[in-house]
């Protein structure tokens, strides 16, 4: 059996047993794999240990129950196999930067630090998903601005519109001045913080190309990108599968990284390895602004 199928079965087993006694040995036995080999494959494919994945899923399930049920904090903690309300509160605050009671009062399903269940079909797409820390220079981007959210993403339609405008401009003037890399920037805002950002949060996106000197296109605006220090990731797969990568970065990488999300725009870069939105062999560079390690 391919290791991705084994990990997929393990993810389903974990999801079905979050409220029951559960550990890495039990999961490896459930998928008929030796603990040693299963642990290595899981860590390689998922970027975290089995125990870390189980704990992350339980804390995220607890966060959901805090917002969407009236069960007491103690009942939620005990039901998800935490030893006590105190140990649960410590683990929850470390992950979400809020106490369980404060999280419940806020009433928001936040994305950053949340660890939703992985779709077994996405197993393998996270392999080797570790960043380079890079300094990105400032740029002038020529393009389109629009409002979006994780729940309501109109990016593909906006890209079609942008590419049509750029193609018309090149046809009118000749040459390939706009044939370079494409950028998709997401502007930082008051509602995009670690304890407030959720699927319905409206953000301002700006898509475009680096502006050639002295060139302008009717209907397009200019955005000045300040640059700075970024964690650079490579997403391998279609645009449709991009959200799974973001969920991993928000839910697994950031809480364990030692970095904080800086108050600057994050962005995607579509370079020569991007083969189209539906091509599973496409590569998309993802850049998160980071501040110094904690």
From TrEMBL:
GO terms for molecular function: DNA-binding transcription factor activity; sequence-specific DNA binding. This is GyrI-like domain-containing protein. PROSITE patterns: HTH_ARAC_FAMILY_1 (PS00041), HTH_ARAC_FAMILY_2 (PS01124). Keywords: DNA-binding, Transcription, Transcription regulation. The lineage of its organism: Bacteria, Bacillati, Actinomycetota, Coriobacteriia, Eggerthellales. It comes from Gordonibacter massiliensis (ex Traore et al. 2017). The keyword Kinase does not apply. Coiled coil: none annotated. Residues 8-106 form the HTH araC/xylS-type domain.
């Amino acid at each position: 059996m391919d290791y991705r199928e084994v990990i997929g079965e393990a993810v389903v087993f974990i999801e079905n047993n979050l409220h029951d006694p559960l550990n890495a040995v039990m999961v490896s036995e459930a998928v008929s794999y030796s603990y040693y080999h299963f642990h290595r494959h899981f860590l390689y494919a998922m970027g975290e240990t089995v125990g870390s994945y189980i704990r992350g899923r339980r804390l995220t399930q607890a966060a959901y129950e805090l917002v969407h049920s009236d069960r007491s904090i103690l009942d939620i903690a005990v039901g998800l196999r935490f030893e006590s309300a105190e140990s649960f509160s410590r683990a929850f605050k470390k992950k979400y930067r809020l106490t369980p009671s404060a999280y419940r009062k806020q009433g928001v399903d936040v994305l950053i630090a949340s660890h939703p269940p992985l779709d077994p079909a996405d197993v393998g797409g996270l392999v080797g998903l570790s960043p380079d820390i890079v300094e990105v220079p400032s740029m002038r981007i020529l393009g389109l601005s629009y409002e979006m959210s994780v729940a309501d993403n109109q990016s593909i339609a906006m890209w079609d519109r942008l590419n049509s405008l750029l193609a018309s401009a090149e046809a009118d003037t000749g040459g390939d001045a706009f044939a370079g890399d494409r950028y998709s920037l997401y502007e930082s805002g008051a509602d995009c913080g670690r304890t407030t950002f959720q699927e319905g949060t409206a953000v301002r996106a700006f898509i475009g190309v680096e502006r050639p000197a002295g060139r302008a296109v009717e209907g397009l605006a200019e955005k000045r990108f300040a640059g700075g220090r970024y964690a650079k990731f490579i997403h391998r797969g279609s645009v449709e599968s991009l959200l799974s990568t973001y969920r991993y970065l928000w839910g697994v990488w950031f809480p364990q990284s030692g970095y904080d999300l800086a108050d600057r725009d994050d962005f995607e870069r579509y370079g020569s390895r991007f083969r189209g939105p539906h091509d599973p062999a496409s590569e998309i560079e993802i850049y998160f602004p980071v501040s110094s390690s904690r």
